[in-house]
Amino acid sequence: MNAIGKGARGFNDEFMEFLKKYQVIGLAVAVVIGTAATKLVNSTVTDLIMPLVAVVTPSGNWKAAVLEIGPLKFLLGDYLSAIIDFMIIALVIFLAVKYLMKGEMGKKI
Predict the structure, then answer these.
(1) 33 and 51 Cβ atoms separated by less than 8 Å
(2) Quick one: 39 exposed, middle or buried, by C-beta within 10 A (0-12, 13-18, 19+)?
(3) All domains of the chain, ordered by start, with CATH?
(4) Whole-number percent of the chain with pLDDT over 70
(5) Per DSSP, which regions of 11-107 are E strands?
(6) What are phi and psi of 26, to 5 degrees?
(7) pLDDT grade, residue 72 (50/70/90)?
(8) CA distances from 23 to 6, 38, 52, 58 (A)
(9) Rounded alpha-carbon distances, angstroms, from residue 36 to 33, 47, 80
(10) C-alpha to C-alpha distance for 85 and 47, rounded to whole angstroms
(11) Residue 58 to residues 53, 54, 107: CA-CA distances in angstroms?
(12) Of 65, 33, 66, which Cα lies nearest the Cα of 50?
């Protein structure tokens, strides 16, 4: 084998070892699933939870809630939506990790 072919083969082996060692494929899958889950959570908050919040709020248009202090405008409705999104995502992650860790703890005992 010539020097170029040998170097390319070594790079290929090194790259495959990198993928295995750092579990890059699993990380890529997790990012894709996380992106899809984020869309699902955003839809759940926007389409299911916030209409219930809108019924309780006096004006009904909670997402347009703005606090104006002089020239400053604070978008409270958008902020509330982001907080609810975060809380739902954190709850789902907590439950998933708790479930997965429960399975691992059962194997060790």
Answers:
(1) no
(2) exposed
(3) 3-108 (1.10.1200.120)
(4) 82
(5) 66-69, 72-75
(6) -60, -40
(7) very high
(8) 25, 22, 42, 51
(9) 5, 16, 22
(10) 12
(11) 10, 8, 53
(12) 65
